[in-house]
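// run 5 | inverse folding | seed 20
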């Protein structure tokens, strides 16, 4: 299902440049802020939910997904080095799967795991709040990785479009406009977290029976469209 060499080169490209510093800086900021808030405010459910849901799931997770998703393939398309992969006798969907696995792995390490650590610092394991937000961060990271990988394939301005989606749509429109919340990965992931946490701890504007199919469509559809788009890229001399 995946090419190990492509995955290894993708990981090296993501972690060996400035993107690696950004991927590391975001979770460190969340954890450091959690330590400070816990020392100042103590153990408080509302404070923990605000940090994990707002700064964690609402900001850090989409930004990590953006860096990992677009960075997994966008630079290779921009500088033309993608031709070396396309020239190999391998299905192009396998290239997408390999890069998506790496992007999802980055989301797990730099988004879901830091969310869990921050949750333990802020509120421990009480009321399953930490577990709920961690699972939500994991699921959202997977969906963001697929969507932003697609952005990286279809546009040279993937980072700009990704920032507009992650910060404008998800943070502002998706948080306050009721109709737009149905098309928010953030709200879909919160719906799953709401199911895991104790009643009333986490809330979502989207019901779980709606959120699950939309998460699957966004993730699988994003990967499929990225593979389809990549398959239409041709090399000079290809028929």
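// decoded
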């Amino acid at each position: 299902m995946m090419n190990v060499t492509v995955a290894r080169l993708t990981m090296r490209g993501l972690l060996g440049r400035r993107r690696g510093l950004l991927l590391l800086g975001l979770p460190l900021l969340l954890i450091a802020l959690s330590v400070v808030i816990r020392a100042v405010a103590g153990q408080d459910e509302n404070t923990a939910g605000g940090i994990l849901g707002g700064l964690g799931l609402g900001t850090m997770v989409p930004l990590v997904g953006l860096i990992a998703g677009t960075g997994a393939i966008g630079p290779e398309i921009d500088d033309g080095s993608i031709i070396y992969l396309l020239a190999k006798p391998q299905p192009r969907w396998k290239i997408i799967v390999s890069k998506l696995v790496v992007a999802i792995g980055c989301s797990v390490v730099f988004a879901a795991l830091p969310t869990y650590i921050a949750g333990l610092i802020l509120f421990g394991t009480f009321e399953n709040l930490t577990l709920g937000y961690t699972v939500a961060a994991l699921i959202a990271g997977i969906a963001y990785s697929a969507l932003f990988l697609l952005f990286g394939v279809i546009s040279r301005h993937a980072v700009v479009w990704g920032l507009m989606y992650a910060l404008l749509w998800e943070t502002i429109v998706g948080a306050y406009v009721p109709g737009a919340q149905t098309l928010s990965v953030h709200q879909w992931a919160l719906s799953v977290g709401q199911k895991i946490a104790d009643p009333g701890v986490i809330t979502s504007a989207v019901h779980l029976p709606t959120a699950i199919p939309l998460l699957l469509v966004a993730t699988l559809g994003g990967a499929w469209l990225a593979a389809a788009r990549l398959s239409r890229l041709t090399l000079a001399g290809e028929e």
